[in-house]
Amino acid sequence: MFNKLKQFQDIRSRAKQLQTELEKITVDGESGWGKVKVTVNGNQRISKISYSDEIIGDKEKLESLTKEAVNDAMEKLQKVMATKMKDIGGLDLAQDIQGMMGQN
Q1: What are the residue ranges of helices labelled H in the chain?
Q2: Global pTM?
Q3: How far apart are CA 12 and CA 77, in angstroms?
Q4: What are the CA-CA distances from residue 49 to residues 13, 53, 94, 97, 103 (Å)?
Q5: Can you tell me the distance from the alpha carbon of 6 to that of 43, in angstroms, rounded to the nearest whole number?
Q6: Domain boundaries in the chain?
Q7: Rounded distance, CA 61 to CA 57, Å?
Q8: Fewer CB atoms near the end CB (10 Å): N or C, the chain?
Q9: Which of these, 92, 103, 100, lies nearest to 18 by C-alpha position?
Q10: CA distances from 59 to 9, 32, 35, 81 (A)
Q11: Per-residue pLDDT tens for 27-77?
Q12: Is 36 helix (H, G, I), strand (E, B) or coil?
């Protein structure tokens, strides 16, 4: 029982470290040839959105380009995160959690 508790504490500590590392990752997505730009961090939180002056008055275009920019940023983030997870052992963490739960 004590061994399981220690394993859980170790996994929790590694998960917290992983979350901290992911917060440091940022990617930029854009659409409309740079008219809309979105910055997203590794925890999938949008930290910045910027619009060029020329599209501010066109609500429909603004909405469409915002969606495209967010999707672009998320796709880029997925690629960066896959590499980062391998580098910092995030995939091992998921396997360790499954092992503790008896799902291996």
Answers
A1: 2-24, 59-88, 90-100
A2: 0.69
A3: 24
A4: 32, 13, 32, 36, 41
A5: 26
A6: 24-86
A7: 9
A8: N
A9: 92
A10: 49, 14, 13, 32
A11: 999 999 999 999 999 888 999 999 999 999 999 999 999 999 999 999 999
A12: strand
Q: What CATH number was assigned to the domain covering residues 24-86?
A: 3.30.1310.10
- For the chain, give the mean pLDDT: 83
Query: Which single residue is written with the structure tokens 């997203």?
Result: 40
Rounded to 5 degrees, what are φ and ψ at 26? -135, 145
3-class DSSP state of 6? helix
Backbone φ and ψ for 49, nearest 5 degrees, come out as -135, 130
